[in-house]
Design a protein that fits this description.
Layout lengths: L4 E6 L2 E6 L27 E3 L5 E5 L2 E5 L7 E5 L10 E9 L5 E8 L11 E4 L2 E4 L4 E7 L8 E6 L2 E2 L3 E2 L11 E7 L5 E5 L2 E6 L10 E8 L9 E11 L3
Antiparallel strand pairs: 1-2, 3-6, 4-5, 5-19, 6-18, 7-15, 7-19, 8-11, 8-18, 9-10, 11-12, 12-13, 12-14, 15-16, 16-17
Length: 241
Amino acid sequence: MPDRITARSENGCLRYYDVVTGDTVDVKTGGPCIIQNFWGTEEKYTDSDVNGSTSVIADGVCTITLGGADNDDHDFTSGLIFDPSKGLTAEARIALGDVDQTGLNFGFSDAITEDADKIAVLYSVTSLFSYATDCAVLFSDADASTDRVRAVAVNGNIDGTVITASSAALVDNAYHRYKVEIDPAGNVKFYYDNAYVGAETLGVDPTATFCAYFGLISHPSAGAGADTAAISYMHAWQWRA
């Protein structure tokens, strides 16, 4: 148990948590902890291309509710502040309210927002459609013929190999952990629910500039609805200055 406990900076405080469950640990009873050093500037996440959607933070969770029309989308991102040549990691814990009605992206992208009714990566039936010039994301899409979490990197508008990250379909309102790493050469590794699921060699351009990126889009199978995503945490960092 103790080697599962680590720490990170949140709202100016050092939070200890279990890396498997995500639960906050009381340091008085949690045993030895790995204490990490954090420094830098605070970066707030912003909403873009909202199409009538909303984001609300309550009880430590950010809930994004999409507009009611097909292809309504919402981008929730940092600024374009991340330099992949210094090594990057992005991690989030996310639950979809209706997995049969929505598509999501999480990771890094070179654009804060895409054109209307688009997010960085979409997947229809068995085909990938990428709109970011460079990105590395885990994604799911209700328009896919098989409901799975997948991963892909895009380098200079050239799509990498699509990696299947999950062996089972997503479940409504169930939280999952998404993690993307980019090393200084542009090689990408993907993790899903704390398990390594695949890599893309030279997956992105290491000279590009990235934002931490979460994209959500409405893809209802019948009619339309105000679909949701809940983010219990989303954070990103460079490995060095």
